[in-house]
């Protein structure tokens, strides 16, 4: 892997990425890659602080397993991890990150250990009275030592030997810096020499204080060791929890490093898909600065890159391989993630460097053949070969490499090559699974554009490149003559093809821009249509509510006790109906007396006219005065005859039927006619008066209503409408 990273110029990028880890990891995340990527994308939506640097837990877990005693530094490594997970847990996040953090349940025993450590890992001595007292005594002795040294420095005897007037701390000893010959005025031990030849001397007068400090330090260390034993014993009981947080922190560290690295460099997180397609849009190789973004469609088995020297062919090859490598390990990169697609490969292999050198004693071509033989043992790999013709005769190489490429494809490999072999490119160009791509040369400015065009074989522009880099024009001219007219014509044809392709590319761009404009217009029309439909639905809902209110008022009218109350309730219901809009299309129909017409859902006959706008029609025995604009001609000529029941119902407002004094069979016949007329007139609720009496008539009416197919339900009327002597019937 290190060799491949070096070949693809990804060293610096990978080093920067690895610096975001809290502890060292391999680039590959073990486990379900789809699930890992789901966690990474969820974490990418959050703002969070980076975890602290943490050492590996292997030695810590081994010590606990053997019931050993951990030092405070090892214990604090565990504390750092737990505190970081607690920070995330306390945020009470939603989604899979929140569910993950809810799994961390911190035992009280661990809290008893954690409280003894500050944020920077120092032991909280204030929690132990003995330690606090010992620290105070040490500070007292240090003050005594400092005072003694200051008194010495102010001594007139020693003043001539002092190099400076400050206390130095050398080899864990407080000392003074003095010149040679100090022995007769200062007794002490030399602990070091300065670069100027002076002596660092620790005076004997402070030895007593130093011994006291050492004694107290031993007491402190003994207390610290007891705490370490106590903490280690508690942590040994929590080994399953420590194993759990160690494993989970490894996963989290892999996730957070990718997220924070991507955010720091404004890069995208992309995972390889389960196929072999590679489509890059706006990709920038991390080793390049101010580079032109690469766009390439590599869906076929072979991509053959030709064209101008120093035009970026090798960098394009490295970019394709680098994108597949980074997607495989979910390493952030710069590209348009929505338009790009990177497949998955078992391995990524590169044949880029010249294998010839003094040490391996092998020719360039022989070394290339060794590398190709290694590739034949691989399967489902992405292979990149730079300058495939390197090191041998071009005609022989064209035939050889055509067969090699054919065999690699049969083995399931996907290959991208750069070449100047027009013969090899021509041999491969007729295959459906080969994609050609050429580096573009700017004829006017006589330099590469570092852009590429698919579908053509590019010219190498060797003569132009030689001139640009300082080769004498006379030499270049003579070389062209040696190259030959026919070869030059072939190059001109290639160049002309390239020019036509560039023009076609510009036309395609204009078409694409126009299509995008049309797409935006279509989107705007769609949004407007959806908005109108939404408004229409709202108006429908409002209309329905208005009709519901009107129907409710109509029912209230039906339950009224007299005709005037009915009319008043109906007028009130009519006012609650939404205003009717005039028909947009004016009809030019003429009507006359005797015409059969349709008024809303009912058919009738015109019996009189008042001008052209008003007419009186007869509908089911009733005369109604209407506007002619509400009428339509109909072919129905037959007029329905009036019935006695209808007349009676009309007199009683068409809503109630009085059966008082009738025999049971006579009442049932009357009730049957009344319900039929009520249905014709569109009433859905009526009232039947049968009285109480002996109960026979009430019983007959009840049985009749139960058996009638058009009766939905019925119930006794309220007290003010007859109580048990009447029935409210719903049709």
* Coarse structural class: alpha+beta
Question: How would you write the strand order of the largest sheet?
Answer: 9-10-11-7-12-13
Averaged pLDDT: 81
> Main beta sheet: strand number and arrangement?
6 strands, mixed
| Separate helix tally | 22
Shape: flat
Number of strands: 22
The percentage helix is 40-55%
Give Rg in angstroms: 49 Å
Low-confidence stretches are 636-640, 642-653
What's the structural blueprint in terms of helices and strands?
Layout: H1 2-7, H2 11-18, H3 33-44, H4 58-65, H5 72-89, H6 95-101, H7 108-114, H8 129-153, H9 156-159, E1 168-170, E2 173-178, E3 188-193, E4 199-203, H10 207-237, H11 239-265, E5 278-283, E6 294-298, E7 302-307, H12 313-328, E8 341-342, E9 347-351, H13 364-375, E10 381-385, H14 394-410, E11 414-418, H15 422-429, E12 434-442, E13 447-454, H16 462-468, H17 473-483, H18 485-558, H19 563-576, E14 596-599, E15 602-610, E16 614-619, E17 622-627, E18 631-633, H20 644-651, E19 656-658, H21 664-680, E20 685-689, H22 696-707, E21 713-716, E22 726-730
Parallel strand pairs: 7-11, 7-12, 9-10, 10-11, 19-20
Antiparallel strand pairs: 1-2, 2-4, 3-4, 5-6, 5-8, 12-13, 14-15, 14-18, 15-16, 16-17, 20-22, 21-22
